[in-house]
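Closing statement on the 4'-phosphopantetheine sub-project.
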Amino acid sequence: MKRAVYPGSFDPITFGHLDIIERSAKMVDELVIAVLRNSAKNSLFSLEERVNMITELTKDLPNVKVESFDGLLVDYMSQIDANIIVRGLRAVTDFEYELQIAQMNHVLKDNAETIFLITNLKYSYLSSSLVKEIASYGGDISKFVPAQLMNRIYEKYNVNRENTYEQ
Ligand code: PNS
């Protein structure tokens, strides 16, 4: 059984993440989206909110599971018997950091292999941080996140946009 993890903060999940999820799910038997309980980072959404949002958005993908993890990714992978890590690469700027993490994970767990998927060109500029920044100023985030998430993001910033979006 080829089980892969797609780890991340997903705060919030974007179209870029969803694209990586859909494409990588086709390459493995099971894809576990592993949401980091990032206590050090100040996340906009709680762990439970992030897991619930991703579960809702991936409910039609039969081999995709959403879980959370704490601590080292490699330890979590050993617990769930996974040895493939999926990460998206947007630009050269991602590469250096991702290479370092991939090599470190491989040293920590010698059967851990990282697979990089090149982000779809239409999402190559996208990041959760930028989505949050735009939403905090009341900007339009409809091109970046699914419609079901938009109001939930605006609500975090007490932004009332004139057009409300379908939940
Ligand atoms: O979405 P992000 O914030 O870019 O994801 C980063 C993530 C979750 C993949 C990375 O921070 C991680 O794996 N954290 C868990 C702790 C860990 O294993 N760190 C050592 C990696 S060398």
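The domain at 3-124 is CATH 3.40.50.620 (Rossmann fold). With this model delivered, the sub-project is considered complete and its resources will be redirected to Aim 3.
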